[in-house]
Specification:
The protein is of the alpha+beta class. The protein has a domain at 92-223: Roll (Mannose-Binding Protein A, Chain A), CATH 3.10.100. The chain has helices spanning 2-18, 41-76, 80-92, 96-101, 121-130, 141-147, and strands spanning 105-107, 110-114, 134-135, 154-160, 167-169, 195-198, 207-210, 217-223. This is C-type lectin domain-containing protein. Residues 107-221 form the C-type lectin domain.
Length: 226
């Protein structure tokens, strides 16, 4: 009986070794590359989040570097526009102090040169243009009062260049507001009087027409940009 038990036990032991439990058959064969068990879904999610976060960090770093390089380029690049505008303004601005030292008078927004010698109208204008100016143009009552205070027969930048007695300033504008003296302009004694002078100093209406080849003092005018 004991023997039978041993034989039965041996038979059972052999059966156990040769016939593995069904639960072990489903495990993957790691060496041969058999079917793997499905990965843990939570672990896969963490891996995707980690990869996404890493990509965002790389993108942010690249953006920061690009922005710093752009700002550095803007800061270090010279502003040529501002320099050009500033130089143009400086070049156009007259040195008022130097003009005053040369005998010019500053009034409102212009500089004026009052001559101490006499010339014809055209010679007077030539002198003014050589100074970067021109014969005076009267635009306001204040300027009219200013020009007649010197008590000299003085050329204005006004003349008639047509047969219809159309008076024109040296800048090409037509005369609108005038300060003709009594009875002027009149072409006195049939003379050709195509240029204008200041004659009646004590009157606001002080202008007189006169031949352009007469000799007179003159006033140059130059705009002063402050």
């Amino acid at each position: 009986m004991v023997r039978a038990v041993h034989e039965e036990a041996a038979e059972i032991s052999i059966d156990y070794v040769n016939q593995p439990d069904a639960s072990t058959r489903s495990q993957p064969n790691l060496e041969t590359g058999g079917n793997h068990a499905a990965p843990d879904p939570l672990r896969k999610l963490f891996r995707l989040v980690g990869v996404g976060f890493g990509l965002l960090c790389i993108l942010q770093a690249a953006l920061n570097v690009s922005l710093r390089l752009t700002l550095f380029k803007i800061d270090t690049q010279p502003s040529t526009t501002g320099t050009v505008c500033r130089n143009e303004t400086d070049n156009q601005r007259p040195l008022i102090g130097q003009y005053i030292q040369l005998g010019w008078v500053y009034f409102h927004t212009s500089l004026y040169y009052i001559s101490s010698t006499k010339k014809t109208w055209q010679e007077s204008r030539d002198f003014c243009q050589q100074q970067g100016a021109d014969l005076v143009i009267i635009n306001t009552k204040e300027e009219q009062d200013f020009t007649r205070q010197f008590y000299r027969l003085t050329w204005l930048g006004l003349r008639n260049i047509t047969k219809r007695r159309r008076w024109t300033w040296v800048d090409g504008t037509t005369l609108n507001k005038s300060y003709w003296g009594p009875g002027e302009p009149n072409g006195f004694e049939g003379k050709i009087e195509n240029c204008v002078e200041i004659r009646f100093f004590d009157l606001e209406n002080s202008w007189n027409d006169i031949p352009c080849d007469e000799q007179n003092f003159w006033i140059c005018e130059k705009e002063a940009a402050l």
